[in-house]
Amino acid sequence: ALAAPCGNACPAGNDVAGFLCAISSEGVEAATRILDATQPLPSVCGRVCPGFCMDECNRAAFDGPVNIRALERWTGDRRADPPATPEPAANPLRVAIAGGGPAGIAAAHALALRGHRAVIFEEGPALGGLLRTGIPSYRLPPEALARDLSRLLALGVEIRTGQRVTASDVPAHLSRFDAVIAATGLAGSSVLGCPGSDLPGVEDGLAFLARAKEGLEPPISGPVLVVGGGNTALDCARSALRLGAGKVTVAYRRGRGDMPALAEEVEDALG
After folding, report:
1. Collapsing DSSP states into helix, strand and coil, what is residue 80?
2. Which of 77-81, 135-139, 159-163 has the lowest mean pLDDT?
3. For burial by CB atoms within 10 Å, which of 53, 79, 109, 257 has the most?
């Protein structure tokens, strides 16, 4: 049978239709078992996923798409522990994963569910990557991320923080592990590349968001200009307002309809 359009649109490969039917007929724990097969971060994705599944929902032609993202968030927040039971592996492998962001977390989750031993090497002090440093708390509360990560640890995934893995480290890791997965995430931020971009007061958006989550010193005051029209730009604009900016202006090179940020984020920023 062909998968439902919503399921086909999900980059994580979630069984969206099965998950929704399980909520309706069997309850949270049944829906959880379906999500667990493909999704290590339901509380997170239920908050920050772009919702490609909802764009393709058949109900859109009648009375509007099912709010799949909200239902995933609701399920992730209310599910009970423990997590899914791993399958026994005929030949258990030990795999090193370089990077503890979403890709590394997903790789460790998939391996652990199939009975393999995953060890995540994370350069920072904690797992999460940009989920931890690049998404404001009003969109992704720290407790939601912690709740999802606790289930990953309960599967037996080992975490080694404060350890950066470079290309030169891979041969040594291969002597101790059966495989190495590179999940190093965002390589670097875009730069303006125009005169004045290195002046005092000009700051990279992701660096600003990381500082905002840690507590800005000194605090913001006066007008702020945000260059860009993606989700990071909107997160910076909304965070700046929350942190004391007198006025925030978002400058984008194309029209408002071309902005890559989520439409709801744009509306919330304007509101």
Report:
1. coil
2. 77-81
3. 53
* Comparison of pLDDT for 3 and 205, the residue scoring more: 205
pLDDT band at residue 80 using 50, 70 and 90 as cut-offs: confident
CA 42 to chain centre: 10
- Interacting residues of 18 by C-beta distance below 8 A, sequence separation 6+: 34
Mention every residue, 6+ apart, whose C-beta is less than 8 A from residue 95: 107, 111, 116, 117, 118, 119, 177, 178, 179, 180, 181
Helical ranges in 134-178 per DSSP H: 142-154, 170-176
Between 263-270 and 231-242, two packed helices, what is the crossing angle to 10 degrees? 20
139 burial (CB, 10 Å; 0-12 / 13-18 / 19+) is middle
Please, how many CA atoms are within 13 Å of residue 200, restricted to the half-sphere of its CB?
0
Does the pLDDT at position 40 exceed 70? yes
With contact defined as beta carbons under 8 Å apart, do 111 and 155 qualify? Answer: no
Give Rg (Cα) of the chain: 21
pLDDT of residue 81: 62
Encoded tokens for 209: 């968001």
List, for residues 185-205, the tens digit of each pLDDT value.
Answer: 865 677 788 888 889 889 999
Q: What is the DSSP letter of 46?
A: H
Q: Which two tokens stand for residue 125?
A: 């002090």
